[in-house]
Specification:
Number of strands: 24
Distance between the termini: 43 Å
Largest sheet: 4 strands, antiparallel
Number of helices: 0
Helix content: under 10%
Length: 282
C-alpha cells in the first residue's frame, strides 16, 4: 500500500461502535462512528490508534511483508507517518491495548513465524519483543485478563518444535502482559485436524475466543479446533468431535445469560455450539 490510502476505505459503521472523534456522521472529516469496510473486526491487522492529542487521528496496520505502519489523517486522506523495521514474516494481527494497567496503550502485534512485539504508540519505540527462536509459528492470539492480577495476558497457540524438520507441536501459551514472561504452557497439544474426502491434515488452531461459556463464573478459552479449556484450572472442559469453524464469536442466542459459540464455516455459513449442552444447537 502506498503512502496514501483512499478515504473511500472508511464507511459508516451501522450498529458497530468503534473509537471515533466528533459528532457529525461524516466519514470524510473523520467524524461520527467510523469503521473499515463495514466492520473493524474484518481487518484484524488494522486498528484505530488513540493518541493523547485528540486532533491526532491515526491508524496502525501490519502488512504481509512484515512491517507495521502508522498513518496520519490529513485533510483529504492519510499519510504514512512511521514504518517499523521488518519483522521477517507476515503480520497476523494488531492490537491496541493497555497491557499493564498504567492507563497507557501499547501496540501489540504478532507474526506468522512467531514474533511478538510491543511498541509505544507515542514515540514508536520498541518496548519488547520475544526471542526469534521461541516459536516456529503463532497461529492465533488474543488479549484478555484470564487470572486474578490486574494485568492483561497474551493467550495464544504456537508451534514450539526445536527443529524445522520435526513434527509441528501446537501448544497453548499464556504470557503476562506486564512482565512479558511465560505464565503457563500446556502439556497437551492442540492440533486443528481438517478432513476432506480423501485425506486428513493437521495444523494449529487458527482462531480462539475467551468468555464464560457455561455460567460457572470462570473464563474459558475456546479453540476453533474444538477444545474448550478452563482458563483458571487449565483443564479441558469439552472436546468437540469436530472443529467449530474458521472464525468464532460469542453470543447468547437463547436468553439464558450464557453465550454460545457462533462459528463460521466454509467462509460464509454459521453454526452455533452450546458448551453447556456439549453439542451443536440445531
Amino acid at each position: 500500500m502506498n503512502n496514501r490510502i483512499q478515504t473511500g476505505l472508511l464507511l459508516l459503521a451501522l450498529g458497530m461502535a468503534v473509537p471515533a472523534w466528533g459528532e457529525d456522521p461524516n466519514w470524510l472529516m473523520w467524524k461520527g462512528e467510523v469503521a473499515f469496510s463495514g466492520g473493524l473486526d474484518e481487518f484484524r491487522a488494522m486498528k484505530i490508534l488513540p493518541y493523547k492529542d485528540p486532533k491526532q487521528k491515526r491508524i496502525v496496520y501490519g502488512d504481509m511483508r512484515g512491517r507495521l505502519h502508522i498513518l496520519q489523517y490529513l485533510k483529504n486522506g492519510f499519510r504514512e507517518e512511521w514504518t517499523s523495521p521488518n519483522l521477517k514474516s507476515a503480520v497476523m494481527e494488531v492490537f491496541v491495548e493497555d497491557m499493564d494497567g498504567d492507563g497507557r496503550m501499547e501496540i501489540v502485534a504478532y507474526t506468522e513465524r512467531g514474533k511478538i512485539v510491543f511498541y509505544d504508540p507515542e514515540d514508536y519505540q520498541l518496548i519488547w519483543q520475544n526471542q526469534e527462536t521461541d516459536f516456529k509459528a503463532i497461529t492465533t492470539l488474543k488479549i484478555d485478563d484470564v487470572d486474578d492480577d490486574p494485568n492483561k495476558e497474551l493467550v495464544f497457540c504456537a508451534d514450539n518444535r526445536a527443529n524445522e524438520n520435526d513434527r509441528p507441536q501446537y501448544h497453548l501459551y499464556i504470557y503476562d502482559g506486564k512482565g512479558r514472561f511465560q505464565e503457563w504452557v500446556s502439556e497437551q497439544e492442540y492440533p486443528l485436524v481438517q478432513k476432506s474426502a480423501s485425506v486428513a491434515s493437521s495444523g494449529g488452531p487458527t482462531d480462539l475466543v475467551i468468555g464464560d461459556l457455561d455460567g460457572d463464573g470462570e473464563k474459558d478459552i475456546v479453540l476453533n479446533s474444538g477444545y474448550v479449556i478452563d482458563a483458571r484450572f487449565k483443564t479441558v472442559k469439552w472436546h468437540s468431535t469436530e472443529p467449530f469453524g474458521e472464525q468464532m464469536g460469542l453470543l447468547d442466542v437463547d436468553s439464558d445469560g450464557i453465550p454460545e459459540i457462533i462459528a463460521q464455516v466454509s467462509g460464509r455459513f454459521l453454526k452455533v455450539f452450546s458448551v453447556v449442552q456439549r453439542r451443536e444447537k440445531l
